[in-house]
Structure formats: structure tokens, C-alpha cells
Write a structure and sequence with these properties.
alpha/beta, 8-stranded mixed sheet, 6-stranded mixed sheet, 22 strands, 18% strand, globular
Length: 585
């Protein structure tokens, strides 16, 4: 795969085979080429790209040499695609029944063995777990939850009983319970119909539970491939090892290790190993030529690394120290930084939160966990003054705060900052990084230009950025860099409490690890307290000192020992649904 204008290749030397009923996981950081490969399997390229060579053999035909008419006949009927965002994949103005009928109207029912479209639709609803949703066929997409929308997309993809299905990050952003339901549906459908599947993801824990084999991609090439258990328990490539060290575990609170640096840009691969500049095991020979695939002797397991036979014997997590929760800091502070008592909130007549109470001690992190719709974000918005429809009391540093942020003056907003979930929509695209970070200083303080410039530099440094980012615009940054800018913007006013709303949900595991370590460092060195809104229970163990579980707006459990000693059945069910890696420790 190369750029349409020019000779720079995006994807190179990618080869694998896939049997019926087998699931291959493609993992790697953003930009590694996963989605590009997945789309090429359907004979499709994104705008600006072209397929420069190779073959995609499907049922004896090379999809790269057939005409567009034949490709259109195959897509949807024998090769199906599940996009990452179901909201954009479904037509918002058409009811679910109409959208499912369009699949059969377009591709016919020849592959259904005489079953009518109506009967097949009923089967699909049962297979994806939607048969218990009232009137699901007669609603519009926005009337369904994100997980229900994703299961509708799965139903559409499996409608004609395809031979191959390509799934592009289908569970990103879903809570653990919904994610488990979607993954179970995928596995059941693939087993039932012997459908081969390619599952694209940056979530290695999910891939470890779903995929039979895994291909690890870096800079447009597969650098390691093998049976899932073999690759994750004994990785032979330093990049795979680095990814595993960046993943939080629901059972072990080890220190996360982010992956420094960036992969080479398209057309700028080095002569030798593309990963050498970021590799802790690199030697001079690594920079001389690209390593060939070397067998590791187990279940078609191979890696492109000249030191793979040495690395494969090193347990990836053995030397990582356990993270020590700083419960002693919380216990030593009798005065709470934030107190929430009997908080109830609603949107109009619809209640969202009921009688929620908790406190946040100085220099500590409280994690608020729950499924989608539990009320986590509403609670966060109440705390920072973005939702005024609440009753109860919120006290910050001993002072009751007004429900509306506009009535809180300058002091509370300066000391209590909010970091939004999506870094792509949280930053004004028409402002530079320097302007974005400087903006809170202009609104909350009367400072000279020199003083503002000094504080912007300090905030960028604290967020592990540098002054060279100041003139850049958001569209020139990666997702992780944008999230760091959002953190820098919050830090520039020197807050005492950061409310972080799902700020790592869409990030690569390596970027997520770096953000987690940054937040932990801010807590230790600057004394900043944190409220972490998340559905990622594994991430909670890596950062939180205290944990609150929400369900349907009600507190289910609140304790520092929730993950080890859950008292509520709901909490135990959440923990069972968290995927975990089969790594050797």
C-alpha cells in the first residue's frame, strides 16, 4: 500500500492466511497500518492511497484483480465490515427494521438456504442479544444505547452469513459489561457460521480473549505473529513486549511503562529495523538492515527481530514494581478537599443521580466507575458547575459551591478544573497550542504577557510537552498529544483538583500508560487531587486510592478495597467482565 501520488509506502510485506471460523487480531498503535490492511482485504483503499502490489486471495479469487462490480457483489454478502463508530455507520433517519431490510434487498437471500428475510431478522436479534429490547426494530438509532447500536451493526454484518468479517475497533468506548456482550456475540457468530474474522484493535486485553492468532503491526509491517497465548505469554519482539508493559491489569497494580517516541512517518522508514530508535534492546546491527522473520518454534510464532530468541525468554512484567497506593496521605488529612453530600441530579423530569455522597482527600485519586448511563459524567458536570440541575451540597475546601459555574466567581473554577473525554472536540481547532493553554490565564488572572508566557511554558513542561508545541494547531498533533494539551490547559492555573472524564478511553495503550503516569506524577509532585471518571477497572487499579461504584445513578459500593474485596454482586460482575492478558509474570 502506497501514497497515490508518490512512491512512499504505507503498508509493506504484510502476509497471513485465515481459515474458516478463525479470528486474527491485528494490534498496534494508531498509525501502524491496521485499518489500512483491514480495508485492503475488501479491495478498498482510503482516499489518497493506492495498492501497489501483492494479492488478497479470497475463495480462489484475487480481490485486487477483480472489477468493481464483482467487488460490490462480494461486500456485504460474503465479506462484511463492522466500523468502529456505530453512530456514524447507521442512518440516523431510518428505523432499524428498514436498515436490516435494506441488507437483504441489496444482497438477496440466496445464502440463507431458503429462510425468509423476516425469519432471518428474528434469528439475528436473538444471536446478538437484542430480542429482549422492546420494539427494537421500530426505533431510530439514537433511541438505542451505544452497545445496542453496535449489536445492530453486528446483526447487519452477519445478516447474509458471510465467509469473512472485518471488525475495526468495534468495542472502543464501551463499558466492560457491554463490551463483554458484544465480544461474546462476535465469538458465538463466528463459531456458529464458521466465519473467518479479522479484529482490529489497540486493546491487547480484548484481543487476548477473542482472537486465535495475533499479528502485531508497527510502521506498516507485521513484526510479530503467532498463536495469541504464545505471543502474549512469551513475546519475541521488543515492541510487543513494550505494549504489554503499558497495559493495566485488573489483578495486579504494576507501574505502567509508556512507550517513548513516535514511529517513523510514511516514506521515512530507516534502513534497518523501524523500531530501533525506540527499542531498549537495540544494537548497531539493528540499524544495518531490516530483520527477516525468525521462527520461535511454537505454533507458527515468528518475530522480525535479530534478538528475538533472547527476548522471548524474558517475562514482560516480572521486573515492573507494584504500585503503592498512597492511602497514608489520605488518612493523614482530616480535612477533605471536596465533599459531596446527598447529591441528586436530573435532566428535566428525568432523575439521573440519587443521594450520592463521597469525599476526596488532598493528594489522592478517587475513581468513579460504572457502566454507560450510570451517571458518571453527570456527576462530574455537577461538581465542576456545568450542570446546575442538582440538589444536595458540594463543598470545596470547606466552602459550599453554587450549582452554576457562572455563580462561582473566579476562585473555584481556578482551583477545580475539568478535562473532557474527547481531545479532538475539546480543543478549538483555530487556536494554537500556546493560545489554548494561555486562554484560562486570560480569563481567570490579570497577568502580564511575559508572566502568561512563563506559565504556559511551565504547564507544557508539566504535561511532558515542550515549547516547540506552542505554535502548532490541534490537527498537527496525535490523540495523545492533544490530551496532554488539554491537561496542560487545566494545569496552567495551578488547580488543586482535576476531574478527568474518561480521558484515556480512545487512546492507544502506550499513550494511555504515559497519561496515567503523568497524572500519578502530578499527584505526587504537585499535590494535585484527582477524580477519575472511567469504565476501565484495570486502569483504576493503576491509579486510584479510593473507588466508588455507580449503577443507574445510585452508589453501589465505596471503598479503597473494592477490586480485591467486592461486597456487591454488581461489582463482582463488573470485575468478571474485565478482559485480562494471559501474560507470564
Amino acid at each position: 500500500m502506497r501514497l497515490a501520488r508518490g512512491s512512499s509506502d504505507i503498508v509493506d510485506e504484510v502476509s497471513f492466511t485465515l481459515d474458516r471460523g478463525e479470528i486474527l487480531g491485528l494490534v498496534g498503535e494508531s498509525g501502524s497500518g491496521k485499518t489500512t490492511v483491514a480495508l485492503a482485504l475488501m479491495g478498498h483503499t482510503r482516499s489518497g492511497l493506492a495498492i501497489g502490489g501483492g494479492r488478497v486471495m479470497f475463495a480462489g479469487r484475487d480481490l485486487l484483480s477483480v472489477g468493481q462490480r464483482e467487488l460490490r457483489a462480494l461486500r456485504g454478502a460474503r465479506i462484511a465490515y463492522v466500523a468502529q463508530d456505530p453512530t456514524s455507520a447507521l442512518t440516523p433517519t431510518l428505523k432499524i427494521r428498514r436498515q436490516l431490510r435494506e441488507v437483504f434487498a441489496t444482497h438477496g437471500t440466496e445464502r440463507l438456504g431458503g429462510i425468509s428475510a423476516e425469519r432471518r431478522t428474528a434469528e439475528l436479534l436473538s444471536e446478538v442479544g437484542l430480542d429482549r429490547v422492546p420494539r427494537v426494530l421500530d426505533v431510530l438509532p439514537h433511541q438505542l444505547s451505544g452497545g445496542q447500536q453496535q449489536r445492530v451493526i453486528l446483526a447487519m454484518a452477519f445478516a447474509c452469513r458471510p465467509d469473512l468479517i472485518i471488525l475495526d475497533e468495534p468495542t472502543t468506548g464501551l463499558d466492560v459489561t457491554t463490551q463483554r456482550q458484544v465480544l461474546d456475540a462476535i465469538r458465538t457468530l463466528c463459531d456458529s457460521y464458521k466465519v473467518a474474522a479479522v479484529y482490529v484493535s489497540h486493546d491487547l486485553a480484548v484481543v487476548s480473549e477473542l482472537a486465535d492468532r495475533v499479528g502485531v503491526m508497527y510502521a506498516g509491517r507485521i513484526v510479530e505473529h503467532g498463536a495469541t497465548q504464545s505471543v502474549f505469554k512469551a513475546p519475541g519482539h521488543p515492541y510487543t513486549r513494550a505494549l504489554l508493559r503499558a497495559i493495566p491489569s485488573p489483578t495486579r497494580a504494576h507501574v505502567l511503562v509508556g512507550l517513548e517516541g513516535q514511529p517513523p512517518r510514511p516514506g521515512h522508514r530507516p534502513v534497518g529495523c523501524s523500531f530501533a530508535e525506540r527499542c531498549e534492546f537495540a544494537i548497531e546491527a539493528c540499524r544495518a538492515e531490516m530483520p527477516k522473520a525468525g521462527s520461535l518454534g511454537r505454533e507458527r510464532h515468528w518475530a522480525r527481530c535479530i534478538r528475538s530468541t533472547e527476548i522471548v525468554g524474558l517475562p514482560p512484567l516480572a521486573e515492573l514494581p507494584e504500585r503503592q497506593l498512597r492511602a497514608e496521605a489520605a488518612d493523614g488529612d482530616p480535612v477533605s478537599l471536596l465533599q459531596v453530600k446527598a447529591l441528586s441530579a436530573a435532566y428535566g423530569a428525568k432523575p439521573i443521580l440519587r443521594d450520592v455522597s463521597f469525599e476526596v482527600k488532598p493528594r489522592s485519586c478517587l475513581a468513579i466507575v460504572g457502566e454507560s448511563g450510570a451517571g458518571k459524567t453527570t456527576l462530574a458536570r455537577c461538581i465542576v458547575g456545568l450542570h446546575a440541575g442538582w440538589q444536595g451540597t458540594i463543598t470545596f475546601n470547606g466552602t459550599p459551591v453554587a450549582p452554576d459555574r457562572r455563580d462561582r466567581g473566579r476562585d473555584i473554577p481556578q482551583r477545580l478544573q475539568y478535562i473532557f473525554q474527547n481531545p479532538y472536540t475539546a480543543l478549538n481547532p483555530r487556536k494554537t497550542v500556546g493560545q489554548l493553554v494561555e486562554q484560562p490565564l486570560r480569563e481567570l488572572f490579570s497577568l502580564s504577557r511575559q508572566e502568561r508566557a512563563r506559565k504556559v511554558t511551565e504547564a507544557l513542561d508539566a504535561a511532558s510537552l515542550s515549547q516547540r508545541y506552542a505554535p502548532l494547531y490541534p490537527d498537527q498533533l496525535s490523540g495523545g498529544e492533544r490530551q496532554r494539551v488539554a491537561i496542560a490547559r487545566a494545569l496552567v492555573v495551578e488547580p488543586e483538583l482535576l476531574v478527568c472524564d474518561e480521558i484515556t478511553s480512545a487512546l492507544d495503550v502506550s499513550v494511555q500508560a504515559a497519561i496515567v503516569e503523568l497524572l500519578d506524577d502530578l499527584k505526587r509532585t504537585r499535590g494535585v487531587s484527582l477524580i477519575l471518571i472511567t469504565h476501565n477497572l484495570a486502569l483504576v487499579r493503576s491509579l486510584a486510592d479510593d473507588i466508588l461504584i455507580l449503577r443507574d445513578g445510585v452508589m453501589v459500593e465505596h471503598s479503597p478495597t473494592v477490586l480485591d474485596q467486592p461486597q456487591a454482586q454488581y461489582t463482582a460482575d463488573l470485575l468478571r467482565n474485565v478482559p485480562d492478558l494471559p501474560v507470564a509474570s
